[in-house]
């Protein structure tokens, strides 16, 4: 499997602002339980998309959250990037994912 950047907007003079808005939109959707948004954030962090540096801990966190919401491709991507991470990095990514889930748990 090959990860590719998520291209949501085309380049404009306000590319940084668009990237910030895109990421903010995805984070808001993820907070509402959108697994696809979590997956897209994982892709962005794993590929260094939208002007962000590649961060496999962040990517693993988002792929983990997407997989927890049933996104099968996210589970594959998480396994793929895990091969490039240390056990400590994976543990940190899992800790962040658990913390995100606690902070964004919906009231029943």
Tally the helices: what do you get?
Answer: 5
Shape: globular
Class based on secondary structure composition and strand pairing: mainly alpha
The fraction of residues in strands falls at: under 5%
CA-atom Rg in angstroms: 14 Å
Mean pLDDT across all amino acids: 87
Low-confidence regions = 5-9
Level of helix content? 55-70%
Oligomeric composition of the shown chains: single chain
Give an overview of the whole structure:
The chain is an all-alpha fold and 108 residues long. It contains five helices and no strands. It has a domain at 36-103. The protein is 66% helix and 0% strand. α2 runs antiparallel to α3 (56-68).
List the main descriptive attributes of the protein structure presented here.
5 helices; mainly alpha
In short:
The chain contains 5 helices and no strands. It has about 110 residues and is mainly α. Helix 1 packs across helix 2, helix 3 packs antiparallel against helix 4 and helix 3 crosses helix 5.
Q: Layout of SSEs?
A:
Blueprint: H1 15-31, H2 35-47, H3 56-68, H4 72-82, H5 87-103
Helix pairs in contact: 1-2, 2-3, 2-4, 3-4, 3-5
